[in-house]
Amino acid sequence: MIYLVREYIKYCLIAKNRHGIHSPFVYEFNDQCLRLPIPDYEFKIFKDLKKNFQKNNTSIDVTDLGAGSKKLKKQRKISEIAKISGSNDKYGKLLFRLVAHYQPKRVLELGTSLGIGTYMLAAGHENTHVTTVEGCKSTYEIARRTFPASQHAKVDFVNEGFISYLRNLKSQNPFDLVFIDGDHRSESLYNQLDLLQAFIHDETIIILDDIRWSKDMLMAWNHLVQNSDYHLTIDLFKMGVLIKRGHQEKEHFVVRY
Ligand SMILES: C[S@@+](CC[C@H](N)C(=O)[O-])C[C@H]1O[C@@H](n2cnc3c(N)ncnc32)[C@H](O)[C@@H]1O
After folding, report:
1. Residue 227: its pLDDT value, please?
2. Ligand 1 in contact with 225 (CB < 6 A)?
3. Residue 85 pLDDT more than 60?
4. pLDDT of residue 69
5. Could you write out the three-class secondary structure of the chain?
6. How sure is the predictor about 71, in pLDDT bands with cuts at 50, 70 and 90?
7. Quick one: which atom of ligand 1 is closest to the CA of 95?
8. Class of the 2-254 domain?
């Protein structure tokens, strides 16, 4: 906890608003994408979805293929999963904004959980198709069954481990946006990114969640910021953005969100 407070103070001290940003891409990201209004109708569906889960005290057996939860046991109430693992309002809005602004045709989410973030990814643009991958069978079943009808046809729900899913992926049109929000261990994150290389392009937006979840995740994030494969990296405190953009100088930004 103290570690997070220290990190947050550091972030606040160096994070830039639009005046301190000289990259046209990041200026637009900050000035337009991060400020896009969210339609009330979509936000209400997102809030209702979350609220319904938070009221649901049914317990399910969870198989966690990742680093696990710091707070939850193997038998978990749906209400607890929604409170701890689901996207919160601020970052749910960010997912919506990214899709609405950049209009990716193909989105991949690694880590569906109850499908709360998935909803914001799918709702962001009418021509977006989302593939979302969840390793835990019972969680996957709930997400698939309860997903709002208005966006259901735009989402493929996959019940598989991330590594196995990526290893078995056939050559196809690349993903335009990838949201990595599962297994919070550096080794697994590097593996996922390595396997993703064949399925992304130079402008694919990769969003990493929980870059400060642990010291290991922060170390991985700092390592990726240095990685010469990604010429643009953006720190938004909870999430980090990686884009290859091989045509530009390597740049890193800490942006206030
Ligand atoms: C933080 S939750 C995802 C939250 C969701 N993206 C959202 O925004 O609401 C992470 C999920 O990833 C799943 N997961 C973790 N590691 C995994 C792995 N290696 N393969 C498949 N699923 C995994 C967990 O079961 C969990 O449901």
Report:
1. 97
2. no
3. yes
4. 58
5. CHHHHHHHHHHHHHCECHHHCCCHHHHHHHHCHHHCCCCHHHHHHHHHHHHHHHCCCCEEECCCCCCCCCCCCCEEEHHHHHHHHCCCHHHHHHHHHHHHHHCCCEEEEECCCCCHHHHHHHHCCCCCEEEEEECCHHHHHHHHHHCCHHHHCCEEEEECCHHHHHHHCCCCCCEEEEEECCCCCHHHHHHHHHHHHHHEEEEEEEEECCCCCCHHHHHHHHHHHHCCCCCEEEECCCCEEEECCCCCCCEEEEECC
6. low
7. 8
8. alpha beta
- Mean of pLDDT values over 62-83: 78
pLDDT in tens, 125-177: 999 999 999 999 999 999 999 999 999 999 999 999 999 999 999 878 899 99
Q: Which of 46, 65, 147 to mutate to test the pocket of ligand 1 (most atoms within 8 A of CB)?
A: 65
Taking the C-alpha atoms of residue 221 and residue 209, their distance in angstroms, rounded to an integer, is 10
pLDDT of residue 159: 97
Query: How many angstroms separate the most distant Cα atoms in the chain?
Result: 51
CA 168 to ligand 1 centroid distance, Å: 19
